C-alpha cells in the first residue's frame, strides 16, 4: 500500500520530490533562459558567438549546385533516350518547373 505523506518521513519525501522536479524541469529551463539572454545581448552576431565559419565559399557552393543540376539533367536525358523521347534542354526543364508554380 502507498504510505501517507503525513506519516514519518513524509515531509522529507516531499522535499526530495520537489528538489527532483526543480532539477529536472527548472535547471534546464534556467540554462536555456541564460543562453537565450546571452545570445540576445551579444553584439557580434550569431556567427561570431558560435565561432562558425562556412566550410566552402559561396562561389564553390554555386559551382557544386550547378554541377548537381547538370548531373540531374544528364540523368533525365539518359532515361528519355532509353524511352525514345527527345532530350530536354535546361531551359525547357526550367520553364516547365516554373509553369508548375503559376
Show the helix and strand layout.
Elements: H1 10-41, H2 46-49, H3 58-83, H4 90-101
Structural features:
102 residues; mainly alpha; elongated
Q: What does this 3D model show about the protein?
A:
The protein has 102 residues and is an all-alpha fold. Helix content is 73%, strand content 0%. It is built from four helices and no strands. The longest helix is centred in the N-terminal third of the chain and has 32 residues, at 10-41. The termini are far apart.
What shape does the CA trace take? elongated
Q: Give me the Rg, rounded.
A: 30 Å
- Residue ranges: pLDDT <50 for 5 or more in a row? none
Q: Percent helix among the residues?
A: over 70%
Oligomer category: single chain
H/E order of the elements?
HHHH
The major beta sheet can be summarized as: none
Number of helices: 4
Termini, distance in Å? 68 Å
DSSP strand (E) fraction? under 5%
Provide the residue-averaged pLDDT. 87
Query: Which structural class do you get from the secondary structure elements?
Result: mainly alpha
Number of DSSP E strands: 0
In short:
This protein is mainly α and 102 residues long. It contains four helices and no strands.
